[in-house]
């Protein structure tokens, strides 16, 4: 436990962290990777280049300082980050180096303002915070390894099927190379895939939502190809999967993780909203609802540019034949054929008025996922309509951003 003096000092640094947080975390990553280049095999280089990871960590440090006297308040967010860490392979032995470089970054950025007293207080605070993470992550590692079909670290899976779902999205059906049982998962969870592209110095670990019904025979991920432009590496992993990985190839995968999951203990109506490839966890949830809670009312809403990039449409249509499931499609720029076929319900963007017209109750639980601008618009519309924050659930592909919701005090990296 931290003494009152230490807590007082940490809280006094909150304004400084708010102003200089991103500068501190940018310096932190520079130090961390220069001293520990092997960690470049774990961290997402694209998120680093875009500055998203630095911002996410800055927000996390800021939230920890704000809640330093009541760390239990941020435990849900700690667990969320811990899921990512367990999936990536972050271990207890990584934390001392992280702490050392974080303190050095604070010194480098704040200069004389970072007094010995402040650095000492943050060293104590970091020790407490790190122990919380390590404890939670150790429990998750144990669960991942000891559950039925579970395993430690990364396990070899064979690409059993490769299916093109749209012009930009391809599904990969993955079965264990050892032919043994695999752990099931909750709808909405993801797996980490470790890749090593030819000519690249470091491995890439990417997290992909599982897009099918939870089962113990195979995993399915549906990956959008993000074409790299010039020397930009945004699509390195996805283009490698699309262009180089074929049926019979072996991929290394960690056990399913994540806390963005469908609550099947409830029986109230459910609304699932997705934009683009954000439909992957939503389709898994839709399958689960259809199979496990067929009496539960569901509204499935998907937004895409047009039918050419709309994946898994037929699969959703089959599920929507059930009387309790309604499916709606919004196309931003329908093709001429789309207009002739009349295969969508709304032209343009999802907006508040349209949502009000197709969602029958604000007592529903809403789950949504998609590009950040899309998610901000959906979140704002739902709150304006009258949905309670506790009934709104969302997932980011990549480091978390602010949706102007109090639930986003602490952020992480996906």
Automatic annotation (TrEMBL):
Gene3D superfamilies per the UniProt record, alphabetical: Globins, Nucleotide-binding domain of ferredoxin-NADP reductase (FNR) module, Translation factors
Keywords, sorted A to Z: Detoxification, FAD, Flavoprotein, Heme, Iron, Metal-binding, NAD, NADP, Oxidoreductase, Oxygen transport, Transport
Sites marked Involved in heme-bound ligand stabilization and O-O bond activation: 29
Taxonomy, superkingdom: Bacteria
Binding site for heme b: 85
Site (Influences the redox potential of the prosthetic heme and FAD groups): 84, 395
Reactions the enzyme catalyzes: 2 nitric oxide + NADPH + 2 O2 = 2 nitrate + NADP(+) + H(+); 2 nitric oxide + NADH + 2 O2 = 2 nitrate + NAD(+) + H(+)
Residue span(s) of domain FAD-binding FR-type: 152-263
Names of the cofactor(s): heme b; FAD
Binding site for NADP(+): 276-281
EC number of this enzyme: 1.14.12.17
PROSITE patterns for the chain: FAD_FR (PS51384), GLOBIN (PS01033)
GO molecular function: nitric oxide dioxygenase NAD(P)H activity
Catalytic residues (UniProt): 95, 137
Binding, FAD: 190, 206-209, 396-399
Keyword Phosphoprotein: no
Pfam name, any one: FAD_binding_6
Globin domain residues: 1-138
Enzyme class: oxidoreductase
Residues covered by region (Reductase): 149-414
Cofactor note: Binds 1 heme b (iron(II)-protoporphyrin IX) group per subunit. Binds 1 FAD per subunit.
Family from the record: In the C-terminal section; belongs to the flavoprotein pyridine nucleotide cytochrome reductase family. Belongs to the globin family. Two-domain flavohemoproteins subfamily.
Protein function: Is involved in NO detoxification in an aerobic process, termed nitric oxide dioxygenase (NOD) reaction that utilizes O(2) and NAD(P)H to convert NO to nitrate, which protects the bacterium from various noxious nitrogen compounds. Therefore, plays a central role in the inducible response to nitrosative stress.
UniProt note: domains: Consists of two distinct domains; an N-terminal heme-containing oxygen-binding domain and a C-terminal reductase domain with binding sites for FAD and NAD(P)H.
HAMAP family named in the record: Hmp
Name this polypeptide is given: Flavohemoprotein
Organism encoding this protein: Bacillus suaedaesalsae
Lineage start: Bacteria, Bacillati, Bacillota, Bacilli, Bacillales
Originating gene: hmpA
């Amino acid at each position: 436990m931290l003494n009152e003096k230490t807590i007082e000092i940490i809280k006094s640094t909150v304004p400084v962290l708010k102003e200089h947080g991103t500068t501190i975390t940018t310096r932190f990553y520079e130090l961390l990777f220069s001293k520990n280049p092997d960690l470049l095999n774990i961290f997402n280089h694209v998120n680093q280049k875009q500055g998203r990871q630095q911002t996410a960590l800055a927000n996390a440090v800021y939230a920890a300082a704000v809640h330093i006297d009541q760390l239990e308040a941020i435990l849900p967010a700690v667990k969320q980050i811990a899921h990512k860490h367990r999936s990536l392979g972050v271990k207890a032995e990584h934390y001392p180096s992280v702490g050392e470089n974080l303190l050095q970054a604070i010194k480098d950025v704040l200069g004389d303002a970072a007094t010995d007293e402040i650095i000492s207080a943050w060293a104590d605070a970091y020790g407490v915070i790190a122990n919380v993470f390590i404890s939670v992550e150790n429990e998750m590692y144990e669960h991942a390894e000891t559950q039925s079909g579970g395993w430690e670290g990364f396990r070899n899976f064979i690409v059993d099927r490769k299916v093109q779902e749209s012009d930009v999205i391809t599904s990969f059906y993955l079965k264990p190379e050892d032919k043994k049982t695999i752990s099931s998962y909750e709808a909405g969870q993801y797996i980490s895939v470790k890749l090593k592209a030819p000519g690249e110095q470091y491995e890439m670990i990417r997290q992909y939502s599982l897009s099918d019904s939870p089962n113990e025979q195979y995993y399915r991920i549906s990956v959008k190809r993000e074409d790299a432009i010039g020397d930009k590496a945004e699509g390195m992993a996805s283009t490698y999967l699309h262009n180089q990985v074929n049926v019979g190839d072996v991929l290394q995968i960690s056990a399913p993780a994540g806390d963005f999951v469908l609550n099947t203990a409830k029986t109230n109506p459910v609304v699932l909203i997705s934009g683009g490839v954000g439909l992957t966890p939503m389709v898994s949830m839709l399958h689960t609802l259809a199979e496990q809670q067929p009496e539960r009312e569901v509204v499935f809403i998907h937004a895409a540019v047009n039918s050419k990039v709309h994946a898994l449409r037929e699969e959703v249509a089959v599920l929507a034949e059930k009387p309790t499931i309604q499916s709606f499609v919004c196309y931003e720029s329908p093709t001429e054929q789309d207009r002739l076929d009349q295969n969508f319900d709304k032209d343009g963007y999802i907006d508040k008025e349209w949502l009000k017209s197709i969602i029958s109750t604000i007592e529903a639980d809403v789950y949504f996922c998609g590009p950040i601008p899309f998610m901000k618009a959906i979140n704002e519309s739902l709150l304006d309509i009258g949905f309670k924050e506790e009934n709104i659930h969302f997932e980011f592909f990549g480091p978390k951003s602010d949706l102007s919701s109090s639930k986003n005090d602490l952020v992480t990296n996906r």
